[in-house]
Write a structure and sequence with these properties.
By secondary structure, the chain is mainly β. The chain has one helix at 58-71, and strands at 4-5, 20-21, 27-30, 38-41, 48-56, 79-82, 89-94, 100-105, 108-117. The strands form 2 sheets. Strands 1, 2, 5, 6, 7, 8 and 9 form a 7-stranded mixed β-sheet that branches. Strands 3-4 form a two-stranded antiparallel ribbon. A hairpin with a 6-residue loop joins strand 6 (79-82) and strand 7.
């Protein structure tokens, strides 16, 4: 089964001032009785965090809600998204929390996304 594609009618990327990108962390850290802890590679194919917001109209928000609940089966399936780092296509899934939104005006919403970039 191939992954779903981000709907073309939705914003293509995250707002620049809200995007938080990070390094994939495939380490496992172990405390020691004395001295510094030990660190080793647990998984070379670690997940990269990507968090940020985007603005959507009421119509776009409805499309987005349908995409998450129906197409992505309540946000459980991965999908293709736009990488703010290099504008490439990346495979992502929702992280610890599903999207949330707040109204900025009558027809503009700020939608917050917690994504995990899959290897």
């Amino acid at each position: 089964m191939s992954a779903e594609i981000w709907p073309p009618t939705l914003p293509r990327g995250l707002l620049i001032d809200s995007a938080i990108d990070g390094m994939p962390d495939g380490r496992i850290r172990t405390r020691t009785d004395t001295g510094p802890g030990k660190s080793r590679l647990r998984n070379p194919a670690a997940i990269r965090p990507l968090v940020g917001d985007m603005h959507m109209s009421t119509t776009q928000l409805q499309t987005f809600r349908t995409f998450v609940t129906t197409t992505l089966m309540q946000g459980t399936l991965p999908f293709h998204f736009y990488d703010p780092l290099d504008a490439s296509d990346i495979l992502v899934q929702f992280g610890a929390s599903l999207p949330s939104w707040t109204a900025l005006s009558a027809d503009v919403y700020r939608v917050s996304l917690d994504l995990e970039v899959l290897p």
